[in-house]
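Same chain as my last thread, 683 residues:
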Amino acid sequence: MPIVTASSASLVATFFPATGGKLASITANNEELLFRNPVYQPANLGRLNAWTSGGVEWNWPRLGHSVFTSQPVFVAEVATARGPLVRVYEFDREMNTTWQVDAFLPPNGTTLWTRVTVNNPNPTPVAGYWWTNVGAKIGERSRVVLPADLAIVSTGDDPARPLEAAPFPFFADAGANASFAPTDHSYPANYGKARENFIRGGGGDHAFMSIHDGRGRGLLHAQSATQAEGRKYWVWGTDDDDAARMRFLSSPGDGDYVELQAGPAPTQSQTFPLGAGARRAWTESFSPLAMEADATKLNGPYAAAVAAVAERLETVGPARAEFDDVDAFLASVADAPPSRVLHRGGAWGALHAALVDDAGDVAAPFSTSEARPFPGAPGLAFGSVDEAVAADPAARPWASLLVNGTFGAEANTADVVTSFMVDDAWVSLMERALASAAHPDDAWLLHLHLGVAAHHRADYAGAMAHYEASAARKRTALAARNVAALRAGPGAPPVADGVLEAWALAAAAASAHGDAVASGREPARCPAAVAGPPPRDDACPTATFARNLAREVAAALVSASRWTELRDWFASLRDEDERVRAALSGAMDVDLARAYAAFHGRERSSTTSLEASATAARGVLRFLSNAKIATTSGLTGGLPELWTQCQYAVRAATLGRELAVLEKHHVRLDFPVPRNINFAGAT
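reply #2:
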């Protein structure tokens, strides 16, 4: 994994450009200040089903963990009068905004400074969302110390009242109206279950959050509440379920952590306005908390602990005068051009800069070999269109549309569409291309993309019309799948018949392409398209699409309890193209569906024996006992019930009869659901 480091006389900051530019580590004289995860273990806590714990992550622009958490982003070095800084930045092609984090370590400083800038170059306002999530390792004596008038805390079990106000840190786990004595929640070890604590007030304008290990050593984070008022303290609970989550996300014994989070909005259920052509920026600081001499105060009455850290902030620093000075300096260099780009991110920033001018209108003709400045963010170097296409082939059709008015022959003959655009400027470009009829071979693909754009903005009738027009010109798996999604309705899984049709189209296209490659009529679109399995990444879009579509087929059939069709579908996979079968290897939702099918989909009749049911159940139980599930999905919620039903079947075979109600109760006690398949309380 590539890394970028910045260092001073005492601090070293380490960034991971390939995973969202995460600030993975800050060491002070070789002592780690963050939770640096010793493993890379993605889980389904982000928009791409690939979030990892630890370090400092930058979350923009939609509610929740960022789409960039496991994506490569740009990292550059910027020369300044005070020394070099590291700039982490990227373009978001859903909202057409940019974000950047300028990280600065003064040569002899003991503080890492970051300045966040979010930029909206659009002619219309957007709803912004940013949170800096700071992972910090904890032990049994760790304590979070921060000023607070109160906290907005998550209730956990009451969907009608997900958040409530509580005095911080003393409140009862059962809620504001509980009769129990309040618990000191500044200690992470005192949380039974995972909880959000949105901190309100108490810190003046120079707000801070800190955590120490019980001995007075730890991390101090500060921000200007005028610039960014949001502060949050997130903690996993100590119950078995939450402990299992932390173990899964790291290695056993190494994964206990909390997060101190900062952002402009008061809570993560809210956004903040970012006007047309506007930007918003603020500065944060990260320093070692070295207060061993004050350990007694830090572990004593909470108000005294807060006062001790506040005094340390103003005497040792970074004091408010230093904060304001660095804030002004970082603001003055926010648009300074990079002296060199250290790591390339996505291709889309370069394409957008070529597409629109500063007013957000489609730009005049340009040279694909020359980089254009990005509207409203001249300090972000995305490179030229040629560089973007060379780095990411998925951008090639869009570059062709931009330059030639057509997606090109390669895109028009591809089985799988690998990238999409939903911005008004791109939609306008596609509509003009469709109206011109200069390239009729593009029509099916233009209708498909215009359908996706309409679908994205909730124009469902328009989306259906475009999908049907695309299918009338060329039947494709993606159009069939998207029609199935429309028919299911917003938020629901695609209807089963539609995704089965999509699967048949995808499998036929893959098989035809495999035959064409074998006969020499077509070049392979994926490495090793005939001999051996394809690579398990975006280098083979056919494999990626097959996995994702298979997950939807499996989930749709399980959800509808269509066990016979699910069993038949699995049987049909034996006849599929080798590349398709290889693509499904290790697809967890597909494997889970096999388990459901093995138990519920077995042949049944009035003469089906208890032993036959138990035989199927034993195989499912073996699978579930050893399953390593990195994701929560529509199929994981039913696993505890599947486990229990299988245990009933085994016990019934042992007794030679169906179980009574009390006997089932004893089975549940004897064979509790293992934690690896129990996602109760997962977030």
